[in-house]
Amino acid sequence: xxxxxxxxxxxxxxxxxxLSTRSRVDILRLLNTRSMNVIELAEALQLPVSTxxxxxxxxxxxxxxxxxxxxxxxGAMKVCSRNYDDILISLNSTxxxxxxxxxxxxxxxxxxxxxxxxxxxxxxxxxxxGMLMREDEPASFYHPKHxxxxxxxxxxxxxxxxxxxxxxQNARIQLIELSMEMCSEAxxxxxxxxxxxxxxxxxxxxxxxxxxxxxxxxxxxxNPPWWLDWATQYGLLKTWRIDHERTTLDMQKVSDVxxxxxxxxxxxxxxxxxxVKSDAMHKGGVNLFGKQFGDHEQDLVMRVTYMxxxxx
Length: 312
Description:
- By secondary structure, this protein is mainly beta.
- The protein is built from four helices and 18 strands.
- Strands 6, 7, 8, 9, 10, 11, 12, 13, 14, 15, 16, 17 and 18 form a 13-stranded antiparallel sheet that branches.
- The longest helix has 13 residues, at 49-61.
- The mean pLDDT is 91.
């Protein structure tokens, strides 16, 4: 599979240009099952040999096909074969390589884009312009406006996100990181208000963090001017890491859950749930912060480190 994305603009333009005409797409289609020389391609497409030869050069420059000169009855002939079965073009997510040859796939999901929820008062949400709905009405969490939320709070329950996992089929995942800013949820705020916040991935609880409070002793660095001083102001940035041996929270082990338990090969994405269990010792609620609230200019971030299995 060829992977190309917005982080490689020159390569993306080159590949997009090679795919921009029907004749070049038809050449790739003809090369789907076997190699063909330029004359065979021209006959199949009913195009002049010179036209096909020029299109082959464009495809070759983009490294979408490979050409080889082989002996013919008269001189040599250029034989073409396709280099890739699939092409993945990524415009929103980022794939980058590390020094040790690993690849990192990253997605930042706005906190308002949850796919499921079950919340209980106190609860509400807002964006940088104002409140999105009336406070303490759980039914309003299903209103379409929720996608614009930049801060979400609830006393009990959960919100769940479906994060796309757009990596090659022959990828072997080595590590998953989930990063988010959060804290407890108290009326107004209370710096001494513990809450046992759990995180689940694909239905498996990977660990629990006891937030010490709902922080409001100073204004959050990102908060809009309209946000009141006596409300929740900021959270703590927490990073969960799941690998083949354990799960850690800020590099400290929190559970024995490993990647193999998450059934990653059976799903096109990750279901990430954040909430407070009904039997938690400290039922102090959750505040989740987006880019425009709290101290950190980020939403819910997932990073997947993987390597490609060259044997597949």
